[in-house]
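FW: tagging you since you asked about this chain on Friday. Here's the raw sequence from the shared folder, copied in full. Didn't touch anything.
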Amino acid sequence: MKITGFILAVSVSAVLGGEMLQIDGKPVEIVKTGQYSPEAVSDKLAAQSFTDALLPVRRSFVYGQVFWNGYAKQFTYAPYFEFKPVEGAVKYRFTVKGADGALLEFVADSPYAALTPVWGAVREGDTTVKAVGIDADGKELGVSGESKFYRMPPFDNRYAPKAKSYLEAAKDTYHYLLTFEAIQHLKKGEPSPNYTRYCYPSKMHSAIIEGLLEHADLDPSVKAEAIEIATQSANFMIRTAIPAGQPLEYLPRTYLMPTTEAGKNLAAVSKLGTIMMIYPVNTGNAMIRLYNETKNQAYLDYAVKIGEQYLRLQREDGTWALVYNIEDGAVVSENACEPVDIVPFLNNLGMATGRNDFRESAERGMGIVKKRIKTLDWEGQFEDTKVQAAPYSNLSKHPAADSYLFITEIWKREGRVLPPEFIAQARKALRLAEDQFVVWRKNNWMLAPSAMEQFNCYKNVDASIAKMIRFYLLMYDLEKNPLDLAKARALGDSLTRIQMANGRIPTWCDWKKGPDSDWINCMYAAAHALKLLAKYDDIQ
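HL: got it, structure written out here
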């Protein structure tokens, strides 16, 4: 599969020389140091982290795009803001008020200056910044802009140790899920009516199929039982798919009517007659994997039927509309799907069947991925939240991480060398994901270190922690920077500490919530990340 056309985006870089920091070759004076300044710590990884945090994720107005952080809720890296020029102003005075009430000031040439000069001294917590335009005599001419946000501390390499080995934790979670009533019930050929999240069938069943097969790879003693349940899960998805003859025939359903009292207020009720097109491919990939395991042609045939709908529905620009109405096949949401699962599915299907049309469709689908890499508008798309209404209004680290994960996998499989510009872009995407979604210190969050899901659901989620672990491990593989591995381990350690004695990892990182609040797909993602992390145990 050809994936070409990546360009080296404008980036920031730093050189520390004495007390002077350089951003893109221009010196930036540090006017105030503090607890998050590099010289405040002796640990080398913490100092590296603190230095990196003085740099913004991206410069302003790159490629003419609007600021990506207009809806941001927190910052770990020194931010820029879309403040306005003030008529007659020759410089701008920035005043930052931290959670401790301290006022920190610096003067810059532009209203778009990063908070780098004082960032190391800004304490954790609710923070405000105000910029005013000033004339040559320092007289204030008007307010350029104001913003409020949460100042997240950077990684400091001082966290509680893991509760058990990563591999032991992974095995415990896989075992818990195998014995979980909602999964055991599938032996009867249908989902448990007692598990609320089965109202999201494509998401749940695809995760169960792939998770069970992964468990069997880790522990061959459960293989027979795992395949038995996986085939029942797959058969249910095929049996309940949209019937032949309808506009969206054969596609697996995104929603089913909830069967529990707790499910009556879920999004599945109001969205029952729709398909969100990021999910059928999850079922398709699970079918391919199950076919590879069982050689039952029915599963590959069903994956082909799913793939053929994606061929039919692909738009002229290579994208797919996000939401369709089942009854008439009409588009409900014109937003383009984040194709981070669609492209790999079509590529996998092309390899499994030898059909070039699937591979060609995958290549055409890369256009929106390249656009996201350029703009950083990594749109969060979830079946139970609102569709993003404006650019950057619902960012999520998932499409950012998944884009680089799947591209790297394809290139390595084809024996291609990853170009330096691609690695630089991956680094920038990782910095944005950490900046907006990783929690390094616990304040009002349930767990730290941890990770949040999306702007529309800004909560600790085990699958979000898992995705960031995988993203850090990817960057470690690409650059061998020990800081990336340290961050991955800190997040993995958190998963072991939140894990319960029976192996359960609460989706919301909250022991008080019962098992019905868990999302099976999220727990399988956590187990997968822990299993991957265990492969790095011998690295010091």
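FW: The first strand starts at residue 14 and ends at 17.
HL: agreed, and The longest helix spans residues 201-218.
FW: great, closing this out.
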